[in-house]
Design goal:
By secondary structure, this protein is of the alpha/beta class. The protein has a single domain, classed as Alpha/Beta hydrolase fold, catalytic domain (Rossmann fold, 3-Layer(aba) Sandwich). It is built from 9 helices and 8 strands. The longest helix has 16 residues. It is globular and about 50 Å long. InterPro entries: AB_hydrolase_fold, BD-FAE-like_dom, GDXG_lipolytic_enzyme, Lipase_GDXG_HIS_AS. It holds the Pfam family BD-FAE. Belongs to the 'GDXG' lipolytic enzyme family.
Length: 329
């Protein structure tokens, strides 16, 4: 942790200077397997009021969010910050990928679905800057939109799981925040994290697939120059083993880290199951098992309907209630 603090600014500056890889849309369209493109439409049946395409910063057209308020519950509403996945290269706040989070509306949560700069536009750590700016925006405008600024849960899937986890563990790391993006008087601290099958340690993903015997369904191995992780970092993963640690949420775990709920499938062909297993163990070692819940869904892959089933969502909302993050009625 000491080295991360000492060399943080230097490492991030090096990343900013790294030569961008060629980013043609034709290549990007083939980076993820077909299953990632089969998105269901966004489920808005439980939406009361909505506020769409709100700019939370001004550096990019990507920096927008949608606010959905519930039909039930009492304002101010606790907030589910929905962070879509897509390999850091694809995805949208209005896609069905955030349908698991939209189920929270039925219980009286507000859902804020957020876009961030993708790897076609910017490399690490810009997505983190964006999401922290979004959190600060939510807190600064909480009264206007009937939101509770003290009950914000970051909930993401796949790449969004990594980003949600980064929000949870890096709240007090100034090298991973750009206050010039607005609302500098607010903090970007969130109160809990829900991580669905997020990639955590890019360096070991290929090795974990090999050891598990699970056949990956990826266009490129993680260590390949064209992998989604390489595009996110701006350079091939094997060339920057130390710098990759800055994109690893486990590098920043501290006593200030909020409660975590982690869920993945035992047959994930995109992100090795061990990514979630080891992350949960590391969190539990630092925070205690009471503060960290890990559930593995047997026979389930990367995303899909299983992560929307009420029986699988119920433990998440029970966990949030335990930590006093449930809505009022």
């Amino acid at each position: 942790m000491y080295r991360l603090k000492v060399f943080g600014l230097m490492a991030l500056a090096t990343l900013a200077l790294a030569k961008d890889l060629e980013k043609t849309q034709n290549t990007l369209d083939h980076m993820l397997p077909p299953l990632m493109g089969k998105m269901h439409p966004l489920n808005t049946q439980n939406v009361g009021r909505k506020y769409l395409d709100i700019a939370y910063a001004t550096q990019s057209q990507a920096q927008k969010l949608d606010i959905y308020l519930p039909k039930v519950g009492v304002a101010p509403y606790p907030v589910i910050l929905a962070i879509h996945g897509g390999g850091f290269a694809f995805g949208d706040k209005a896609s069905g990928e955030v349908n698991p989070q939209m189920h929270a509306l039925k219980l009286g949560y507000a859902v804020v679905s957020v876009n961030y700069r993708l790897s076609k536009e910017a490399t690490f750590p810009m997505a983190i800057y964006d999401l922290k700016a979004a959190v600060r925006f939510i807190k600064a405008h909480a009264k206007q939109y009937h939101l509770n600024p003290n009950k914000i849960i970051a909930w993401g899937d796949s790449a969004g799981g990594n980003l949600a986890s980064m929000l949870g563990t890096t709240a007090f790391h100034s090298e991973l925040e750009d206050l010039s993006m607005g609302n500098a008087k607010q903090t970007s601290q969130v109160n809990a994290v829900v991580d669905f099958y997020g990639p955590i340690d890019f360096k070991v993903m290929d090795t974990q697939f090999k050891q598990s015997g699970q056949q990956p369904r990826r266009k490129h191995s993680v260590n390949a120059p064209d992998s989604t992780e390489a595009r996110y970092m701006g350079v091939a993963i094997p060339k920057i083993p130390y710098l990759v640690e800055f994109a690893n949420p486990a590098s920043y775990i501290s006593k200030n880290t909020p409660p975590f709920f982690i869920m993945n499938g035992s047959k994930d062909p995109i992100v090795p199951t061990e990514q979630s297993v080891l992350f949960a163990k590391t969190l539990q070692k630092m925070l205690g098992k009471d503060k960290v819940v890990y559930i593995q869904l047997p026979g389930v892959g990367h995303g899909g309907r299983a992560f929307e089933e009420p029986k699988n969502l119920a433990p998440i909302f029970a966990f949030l209630k335990k930590w006093h993050l449930a809505p009022l009625h």
